[in-house]
Amino acid sequence: MKADTLTASSGHHVDDEVNDAVRAAITRLVHNREVGADAYTGPIYFMMHNVSREERARELAAALHAAPHGDLEPLNRAVPPTA
């Protein structure tokens, strides 16, 4: 799956907090072996391969779609931050 900030909308800017949150979530997914080690963590686009189940892939795709628009809640539900 892939999400990119280039097509979000003209003049749309993804702030550092969102980039950091998505990058950290993808890093946790790689560490937990939920996605392939070749995941790309932005900042222009985010990409993950080898998600084991379609349902999980859809959940992560929805979270990645919401995050660049400032809604980190789906991402935090899908990939809870570490304490």
In summary, what is this structure?
The chain is mainly alpha-helical and 83 residues long. It has helices at 16-31, 54-66, 73-78, and strands at residues 2-4, 40-41, 45-47. The protein starts with a strand and ends in a 5-residue tail after the last helix.
Give a verbal description of the structure.
The chain has helices spanning 16-31, 54-66, 73-78; strands at residues 2-4, 40-41, 45-47. With 83 residues, the protein is mostly helical. A 3-stranded antiparallel beta sheet has the order 1-3-2. β2 and β3 form a beta hairpin. The chain is globular and about 35 Å long.
List the helices and strands and how they pair.
Elements: E1 2-4, H1 16-31, E2 40-41, E3 45-47, H2 54-66, H3 73-78
Antiparallel strand pairs: 1-3, 2-3
